[in-house]
Write a structure and sequence with these properties.
mainly alpha; 9 helices
Length: about 260
């Protein structure tokens, strides 16, 4: 009887992950169709940053990626199905962040990031790891971003995006703000935090003998025409995913500690 009970729990867990996978992939595929465009180099491109700045961002990003690996291993020991969820989130982030809109004056591109939803669902530490994997695959196989700028892109999209989204969502939920609004603001601020950080990285790396602030403002302003609507789009996408999961599988949100049991009707 115990063996059968254990098997039924495993099968139930697998079916839950498969159900979540289908819902998220369908929604992200729909969003991808709405925003599809020709491929261009995105994130911070290869060779944009000097070696010293590229190394600095690698050093900054490394502890976060290492902690993400530690958290993944720890949580996977408790729930083996958690790895499948993390793999799914890596695919979601990869798809969402493959929607580039060129910003000619900034030396890079604007695009949604997807790290708000991954930060909310699997936590910011593992979301950094998810973003790092997605960014590495993009740099290696589709020439989006670069290997020398991988650390800088992890910092802007992975670290800043994940923590901004996660902290915004948790702060608003603690004030009893609705899931839809909390998800929207999490996606919006995660996206804008990513591009604020990207502007800092670009201005720091390419300023040469010039002053930092004038170049920083120039790059930040260059992002506004594309990033303002994209931030709103990412907010809507994040809110849609969270609300969809609440309507279809609220038990998964409880399991991932996005909601408390008493918050589920």
């Amino acid at each position: 009887m115990k063996v059968q009970s254990s098997k039924s729990k495993v099968q139930s867990s697998k079916s839950k992950v498969q159900s979540l996978r289908m819902m998220l992939l369908l929604l992200t595929a729909y969003c991808l169709l709405l925003t599809a465009s020709n491929a261009h180099a995105m994130h911070i491109s290869e060779g944009i940053l000097p070696l010293n700045w590229a190394l600095l961002w690698f050093v900054f990003a490394a502890p976060f990626v290492a902690y993400g690996l530690y958290r993944l291993k720890k949580l996977s020991l408790v729930d083996p199905s958690f790895k499948a969820l993390v793999g799914l989130m890596a695919a979601v982030v990869f798809i969402i962040s493959c929607m580039p809109i060129p910003v000619p004056t900034a030396g890079t591109c604007s695009h949604p990031c997807g790290t708000a939803i991954s930060g909310i669902l699997v936590g910011p530490a593992i979301s950094v790891l998810v973003a790092a994997v997605a960014l590495l695959i993009q740099a290696l196989f589709i020439a989006h971003g670069g290997l020398s700028t991988w650390g800088a892109n992890i910092v802007s999209m992975g670290i800043m995006g994940s923590f901004a989204g996660f902290l915004t969502f948790r702060a608003l939920r603690s004030m009893r703000i609705s899931l839809a609004i909390s998800g929207f603001m999490a996606g919006l601020l995660a996206d804008w935090a990513t591009y604020f950080t990207t502007s800092v990285e670009l201005a720091s790396g390419i300023k040469g003998e010039s002053s930092f602030m004038p170049l920083f403002w120039k790059i930040l302003i260059a992002f506004i025409p594309t990033q303002l609507p994209l931030g709103i789009l990412e907010g809507a996408m994040t809110a849609g995913m969270v609300v969809l999961l609440y309507k279809k599988r609220p038990d998964l949100l409880v399991k991932m500690k996005v909601l408390k049991p008493e918050e589920v009707l």
